[in-house]
Design brief:
Layout (H helix, E strand, L loop, with lengths): L6 E4 L5 H12 L3 E6 L3 H14 L3 E4 L5 H15 L4 E4 L4 E2 L8 H29 L2 E6 L12 H20 L4 E7 L15 H12 L10 E3 L24 E2 L3
Parallel strand pairs: 1-2, 1-4, 2-3, 4-6, 6-7, 7-8
Antiparallel strand pairs: 5-9
């Protein structure tokens, strides 16, 4: 698929995987909507780079807030009139055993990683259905395919993302495609910058959008199957002891 002038909305795109994904889509000639929640400065930096390559848009987005989702979608439609690709990337993590996690930490992971992703998907669907075309890429995780101690709530949300994706495959009309891209441990703020370079994950997301990589029968695209630098194993998340108490805000 040619991404030239496609309208691409990426949640959590001010840093990490989202940032690298935004830059790659912009290089392909897409109109990229860069969203940020906590750091407008980081969002502006990504926007400036993307806007040099093709007209882009910077929008504040808190996917745990329904009004923020609504406002974001309205701004995109007002500016571009369509949403061709949604990359549900925003996420948070708490590197703690369940008994050590506060209810606030549990709620934020569920509200961001799962409920926010579902609500974002629901918000763009009327526009994709209206054009009978669209691609939705949900960023799950290797921790959504195997459970890891110290990541109980995070794993629960990422397993759920994959289940949501599998159900949506059956609901959506043929013109709209959906899949889960599953990275292993990636060097972002969420992992104290340990793991695979997020550019490698962004490359897989891009190839998936271009349909150069196809998802399997369950809608999964496992990054470690397509990148020599990535693998999923106990070792991937085995460094969790280093991150005790870290609460990562965005991918």
């Amino acid at each position: 698929m040619d991404l030239k002038d496609k309208i691409v909305l990426i949640t959590g795109s001010s840093q990490g995987i989202g940032r690298e994904t935004a830059l790659l889509f912009a290089k392909e000639g897409a109109h990229v909507i860069i969203t940020y929640n906590l750091s407008v400065k980081k969002g502006e930096e990504v926007f400036k780079e993307c806007n040099k390559m093709n007209k882009s848009l910077l929008v504040h987005l808190d996917i745990t807030d329904e009004e923020s989702i609504k406002n974001c979608i309205e701004k995109v439609i007002d500016e571009f009139g369509a949403i061709d690709i949604l990359v549900n990337n925003a996420g948070v993590i708490s590197w703690k055993n369940l008994i050590e996690q506060s209810n606030k930490e549990i709620d934020l992971q569920i509200d961001t990683n799962l409920k926010g992703l579902i609500k974002m998907t629901r918000a763009v669907l009327p526009f994709m259905k209206g054009q009978n075309d669209g691609i939705i890429i949900n960023i799950s995780s290797g921790a959504g395919k195997k459970g890891y101690s110290g990541l109980t709530t995070y794993c629960g949300t990422k397993f759920a993302v994959r289940g949501f994706t599998q159900a949506m495959i059956q609901e959506l009309p043929k013109g709209i495609k959906i899949c889960s891209v599953n990275p292993g441990m990636t060097a972002t703020q969420m992992t104290n910058f340990q793991g695979v370079n997020p550019k490698k994950v962004a490359e897989i997301i891009l190839k998936t959008a271009k349909e150069e990589i196809k998802s399997d029968s369950l809608g999964d695209v496992d990054v470690w199957k397509f990148s020599f630098d990535s693998k999923v194993s106990d070792a991937v998340f085995g460094a969790k002891k280093k991150f005790r108490g870290i609460f990562g805000k965005e991918k």
